[in-house]
Amino acid sequence: MTVVSIVLSRTHDQGGGVPPISARQPAESAPPVARGTGGRSRRRFALLLSMMAATAGGPACTRAPDPAAGAAPEPVVVTLVPVESRELPDRVRITGTLFPEIETTISAEVAGQVVAVHHDLGDLVSPGAPLAEIDPESYRLVRDERERAFQQALARLGLSAMPSPDFDLDALPGIERARLEAANARARYERGRALAERTPPMISEQEFFDLRTAWEVAESEVRVQRLASTALLAEAATLEAQIRIAARQLRETRHTAPPREGVAGGAAAFAVAARFVTEGDFVTVGTPLFRLIVSDPLRLRARLPEHLAGRVLTGSAVALRVEAGRELHAGVVARISPSVDEATRTFLVEVRVENPDRVLKPGSFATADIDIGTRHAVVVPDRAVRTFAGIHKILVVRDGAAAERRVQIGERGPDWIEIRDGAAPGEAIMLAAPASVVTGTPVRVADTEAGDGR
Questions:
Q1: Which CATH class is domain 294-373?
Q2: How far apart are CA 392 and CA 396, in angstroms?
Q3: Residue 431's closest CA among 452, 404, 413?
Q4: Are 230 and 110 in contact (CB under 8 A)?
Q5: What value does the CA radius of gyration of the chain take, rounded to a whole number of Å?
Q6: Whether pLDDT at 176 is above 90
């Protein structure tokens, strides 16, 4: 209703004027009129009320009737597709940490001052490549001293090189000399005995005893020479072993990457994960120098509940993803623990992941799906699912009107979504319904075959 305020201007007549009156004021709030003018004032007030009534109920406030106000809305044309049943790979999701195939710490094998460092963090190192060097001078002197002592021991034996294990000791010069002297003493004794046995004796008894004693002494000297030669040979063997030890320590002043089976010497098999020393540091035996890793392949270690022990098998395919990127990496179950942890009721699995480009980093957190077979799944086109604020819905037709239904979704494909709860195979649902279609919206099914429109 339009409220119109009408103000009457003051008019002057014979009996005086009438003050202005607002149309919003009730009649009783009008100011009193002067005496002698009561008749005219009442007529003017009645005229004012008539004008207000005419204004309130006049044509300006009258609305023409809407001919479509009672008509039903036009139904929205929608397309229906059937809910399908499909065989999907059955997977179990695991989380774990990536570990290098090989991780080794190169430690100092001898004590000394570091004089050279050849690699640093992140370098790729081939097997046998030099890493660091310790001052070799003192170890070289020890080796030389052992070699001179060894040559001296051989010279005392009358040899130029260490003999073979089946060597005849009697061939040594010292023993051979003693044997010859013993043979000569025996011959002299035999001749003296012949002279002493003549009648009369040709030599005195004392001379005979001297010849016999000289022979016995010579025989004893042979035994002494054998013992001495045996001791000298043992000493020479000890010095030879000391030479090998000194030579090995001299070689160990140069620390290299370890060999790796099946990898050529020029291939970059290791990566430097940490360097612990620098030039000038003094290290003792066992001091860590470098930490090397092999990052191709990597191993993902994770634990699975015991009820999956019979379903996860060695050789099962694995799809792996890390937090650093969305790219999927292929792997395979390489090892399965033969026992279940009694405390957690889980068992350990190890997944082998090829990493030729070294995109994956050891120590990273990873999520992986292990294929354990196939399963029946309910799927719908991805355009048939509405999602808002984490809530997923599909639309069905019920009594000529749309009806929304909440569903729980599972896996997603290129153009489909798995429905784990809220839809049954063969049921018809709307495909790509307009946003204006909600529960209660009248709809009409398009004249197309159900299932067309993916």
A1: mainly beta
A2: 14
A3: 452
A4: no
A5: 56
A6: no
Angle between helices 173-196 and 205-252 (to 10 degrees): 170
The CATH code that applies to domain 109-135+254-286 is 2.40.50.100
Q: pLDDT, tens digit, for every residue of 151-165?
A: 999 888 888 888 888
Cβ–Cβ contacts within 10 Å for residue 36, how many? 11
**446 and 79 Cβ atoms separated by less than 8 Å:** yes
- Each domain of the chain, given as residue ranges in start order, spans 12-61, 78-88+376-445, 109-135+254-286, 137-252, 294-373
Q: What is the band of 411 on the pLDDT scale with cuts at 50, 70, 90?
A: confident
Per-residue pLDDT tens over the stretch 267-288: 568 999 999 999 999 999 999 9
To the nearest 10°, report the CA torsion of 59, 63, 64, 67: -170
- Whether the ω angle into residue 20 lies within 30 degrees of 0, i.e. cis, is no
Record the tokens describing residue 216, joined without a space.
């016995």
- Which CATH number applies to 78-88+376-445: 1.10.10.10, 2.40.420.20, 3.40.50.12160, 3.60.10.10? 2.40.420.20
Q: Measured between alpha carbons, how far is residue 381 from residues 408, 420, 435 in Å?
A: 14, 14, 17
Question: Does the pTM exceed 0.90?
Answer: no
| Residue with the larger pLDDT of the pair 251 and 37 | 251
CA dihedral 258, 259, 265, 266 (to 10 degrees): -40
- The backbone region for 441, taken as left when phi is positive above 0, alpha when psi lies in -120 to 50, beta otherwise, is beta
Residue 48: per-residue pLDDT: 54
What the block records as the tokens of 338 is 């033969």
Categorise residue 345: left if φ over 0, alpha if ψ from -120 to 50, beta otherwise. left
Residue positions counted in the chain? 454
- pLDDT of 5 over the 50 cut: no
Residue 380's nearest CA partner among 391, 390, 394 is 394
